[in-house]
Amino acid sequence: MAVSNFLGVFLVVEIIVSGLRFGADGLSMNYYMMNCPFAELIVKNTVNRALQSDPTLAAGLVRMHFHDCFLEGCDGSVLIDSTKDNTAEKDSPANLSLRGYEIIDDAKQQLEMQCPGVVSCADILAMAARDAVFWAGGPVYDIPKGRKDGRRSRIEDTFNLPRPTFNSSDLITMFGQHGFSVQEMVALSGAHTLGVARCSSFKNRLSNFDSTHDVDPALDSDFAKTLSKTCSAGDNAEQPFDMTRNTFDNAYYNGLLRKAGLLTSDQTLLAGPKTRGIVNGYAMNQAMFFFDFLQAMVKMGLLDVKEGSKGEVRANCRKIN
Ligand code: HEM
């Protein structure tokens, strides 16, 4: 029964995903079938091995893919190291807590041995994020491949990432600029079902919040005490987004209903008139969240994808060729 349910969901997902129109014509589900048939398997095995020894890295991979796609498109720009002439995206304060680079390097090294110069770093990251979601208990889905790697990675571009202090209209505007609907933005925010934030990302809610409130009134008072305790260990102390930090589920949305959203940008989804109903829906119906999330992830993975000579296949994900 469980197996047939699983197959049923998988089939429906396949049909929907293959029905999506890819903005990028050169991408396809079986892009590596002829010239690197084991590419998907190599990435999946590498991710599974890494997550078995450190399950918290699933969150790192999903976040890294998001930060890659939002800046200059999904082109592996977030993976590039700084040089003496260029400070790269990864050295921006907004990216300093990104994790999982070594998993991408590991997969890349194996792929370069099997099929040199074929599989892009951008594709490896997109596949790794997809595999991390599934590994953590989230939906299974296929993604089109064929992204090329970019040659630009600049710290100043990270200005275009959303901030934890954003309210729902700021979020709607920023995600709208990338072509996402309100519903897709709320579904993508559900990635915060995985992982943690550091105190520096939410401490503004705990004291001197605004001219009339010391503590953010949108925060449950017991949860506020928990956060203050976490922050007593310093700005880098970590607080999970929800009660199941390594499991991909809808606990994040149920936390928002209890006023236990970690960032302002999380809790605002319950306050905003255009987002509230969607939060309630996902809190009640995990299958609906999974379904919307996977479609929004496939769409995010196609943001400003570089094809043909507009990009390259890096030999080392940390350096342009
Ligand atoms: C809606 C706007 C968003 C804002 C303002 C935001 C902001 C943040 C912040 C501030 C952190 C914690 C960083 C730290 O303290 O070290 C974080 C973590 C995280 N974000 Fe987002 N994020 C957003 C959307 C997304 C999206 C769309 C995804 C993926 C699809 C995502 C995936 C994650 C994950 C998985 C973590 C945990 C990372 C870890 O544990 O290493 N976020 N986000």
Automatic annotation (TrEMBL):
Keywords: Calcium, Disulfide bond, Glycoprotein, Heme, Hydrogen peroxide, Iron, Membrane, Metal-binding, Oxidoreductase, Peroxidase, Secreted, Transmembrane, Transmembrane helix. Residues 26-321 form the Plant heme peroxidase family profile domain. Disulfide bonds join 36-115, 69-74, 121-317, 199-231. This is Peroxidase. SUPFAM superfamilies: Heme-dependent peroxidases. Binds 1 heme b (iron(II)-protoporphyrin IX) group per subunit. Binds 2 calcium ions per subunit. Its EC number is 1.11.1.7. PROSITE patterns: PEROXIDASE_1 (PS00435), PEROXIDASE_2 (PS00436), PEROXIDASE_4 (PS50873). Removal of H(2)O(2), oxidation of toxic reductants, biosynthesis and degradation of lignin, suberization, auxin catabolism, response to environmental stresses such as wounding, pathogen attack and oxidative stress. These functions might be dependent on each isozyme/isoform in each plant tissue. Heme b binds at residue 192. The chain crosses the membrane at residues 6-24. Substrate binds at residue 162. The keyword Electron transport does not apply. Gene3D superfamilies: 1.10.520.10, Peroxidase, domain 2.
